[in-house]
Design the sequence.
């Protein structure tokens, strides 16, 4: 069981908005910034969001991130079939002195 | 462009050893912390080991502490993971990744380690 909690799956129809939550604690999300990664089937993870809400170059603005207290979230607006993937949140834990990943959320486009 | 290429994955029997390598290019390797992350088949991502720029600071996940050793050679722009006492539960795709101040950014394509008799 991951220290960062994500829903195992979310789904939506094309064009819809979906959100993925990532719940942590004061020693990780409450203190450090959160990154999000997208992993397409059979591929390595790719950075999707850094510093809670910053998009790397090339990431569509349909993706947005936020953080409040000990939770973070990733939103996908205007859902597209190409967004079907696994999504992971990650951050550093100051107590454990280690990197933490959420358990991952599978996004399905119906 | 930033490139990370892992190698060394293989089929190994329980109790065996393996050394993974990660060759970096496209950036100043010595300026970045680096990390190893693994993903068991059908499972999520798991942090394994983390090393500072000059190797002075190293952290390990409890699951591999005492069995795995992370190291780097800045002159060769390479990251390594020595894995001893391998167990079936170590079977996974192993990724190396770069860690700037903003957190883990670029990942390699991974190298597969299978531990089985």
Sequence:
């Amino acid at each position: 069981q991951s220290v960062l909690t994500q829903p195992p799956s979310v789904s939506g129809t094309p064009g819809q908005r979906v959100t993925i939550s990532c719940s942590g604690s004061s020693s990780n999300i409450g203190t450090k910034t959160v990154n999000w990664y997208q992993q397409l089937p059979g591929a390595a993870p790719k950075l999707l969001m850094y510093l809670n809400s910053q998009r790397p170059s090339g990431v569509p603005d349909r993706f947005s991130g936020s953080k409040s207290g000990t939770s973070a979230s990733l939103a996908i607006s205007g859902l597209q079939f190409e967004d079907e993937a696994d999504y992971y949140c990650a951050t550093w834990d100051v107590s454990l002195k280690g990197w933490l990943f959420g358990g991952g959320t599978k996004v399905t486009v119906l | 462009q930033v490139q990370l290429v892992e190698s060394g994955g293989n089929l190994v029997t329980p109790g065996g050893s393996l050394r993974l390598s990660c060759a970096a290019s496209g950036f100043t390797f010595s300026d970045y912390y680096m990390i190893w992350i693994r993903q068991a088949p059908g499972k999520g991502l798991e942090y394994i080991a983390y090393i500072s720029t000059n190797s002075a600071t190293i952290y390990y996940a409890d699951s591999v502490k005492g069995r795995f050793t992370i190291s780097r050679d800045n002159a060769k722009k390479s990251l390594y993971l020595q894995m001893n006492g391998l167990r079936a539960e170590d079977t996974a795709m192993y990724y190396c990744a770069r860690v700037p101040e903003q957190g883990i950014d670029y990942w390699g394509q991974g190298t597969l380690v299978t531990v089985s008799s």
Notes: Chain A is about 0% helix and 45% strand. The beta strands of chain A are 9-12, 18-23, 35-39, 46-49, 63-68, 71-76, 85-93, 98-101, 105-109.
